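Section 5.1 Outputs to date
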Amino acid sequence: MPALPAAFEARMQDQLGPDWAAFAEALNSPAPVSINYNRAKTEAPIYEGSPVLWNRTAQYLPERPSFTLDPHFHAGRYYVQEAGSMFLAYVVEQLRQEQDFSTALDLCGAPGGKTTVLLNALPDECIVVANEVIKSRYAILRENLAKWGRANVIATHADSERFSPLARWFDLVVVDAPCSGEGLFRKTPGATKEWNPENVALCESRQQNILDHTLPLIAPGGILIYSTCTYNEGENDDQVARILEKGGFETVSFDLPEDWGIMPTGLGYQFYPHRTRSEGFYLAVLRKEGKATNWSTKTPLRYFTKVPKATEQAALSWLDPEAQLNILTTPKGQLYAVPEGALPLLSILSQSLPRLDPGTPVGLMKGKHLIPDHALSLSLHLHPDTPVADLDKDTALDYLRKAALPARPGQKGWHLMRYDGWGIGWGKMLPNRVNNYFPNHLQVRMSLP
């Protein structure tokens, strides 16, 4: 690892005292590899490994495999994620013992790790909004949400201030704030070159701005979870103290097993690589004062509209009837499958945000027939009678590379291309070939080692 910035090193020596030597040694050791399984797609671990203590669905791997060459990864059966950040799963699990959550917001959502943890940890009926302000990162967020396969999520692309019409709407808000990234020094050595005290101060200012826009969004009795991937108290406890000084919030604490190695800071919890198998993650939990109230709206949908009956029937024929999803369309004809419970929230979001993608993208109508969206192949809500083509690993990798596939006599029309029981995309069977509809921008270009 490159040399640590002198100012960072001096501050951490003061912060850690006698622990500094162990911390510095840990930064020069290999970073652990961990994944979080999609609870709806994986009943048993795919890999050999050991458990992540604070997340029931997570696992450390003994070494880093080639995830790109694993069809399970493309099917959305797991997400590659830093272990410390999955502490969110434990926190939500503990909170759910005392209260229910019907609406959640992941305000700084890309690339999607925290949102997938929420989708694993929250009830299926909870509507989760996952937001990202940077356009390129928003595209990545949408891809990872599609892999998770759930319709109870709304992806949004907006600055935090655009959410102001949703004051007091969310039972749970997660702010994994943009930060100086000190906790990534081991995992991303180049991050040390970007670190400087001026950038730390800029991050603190940005975090304050985001939190100022966030606090009004939380319903009375609701929860704010604030996190960073840094060690800096100015970006961590000091931000929490600032919220408490404003009034109206109180911190929530947990009794953690001592052998987990997670350090209480007074207002939150800090992960250090010499004490936990993780990087530098920080998390704090605050509860807003007051009693929860039920919110509803009569605001009409904007941009999204209900579809004609024939289009609705065509789209629903691809979906599991038990999911009871609504079909919406955009002016461009893109169809989405959305739970009934998402419509009130979607009504307000569609009035105030510049870009959002609700539920499961279903596809486009071409005449009387549906051209299915790639996201639909990954959905948990596909009709159980959807025609399938099961692939072995080599053929699945050929499919993911957009290679030509051998014809399948006797099969015709759209088929779900499936590996180990889970969809990875669409193929259209013709008499002498299979048309490969895997998206070009997701094409695997890596070869076997």
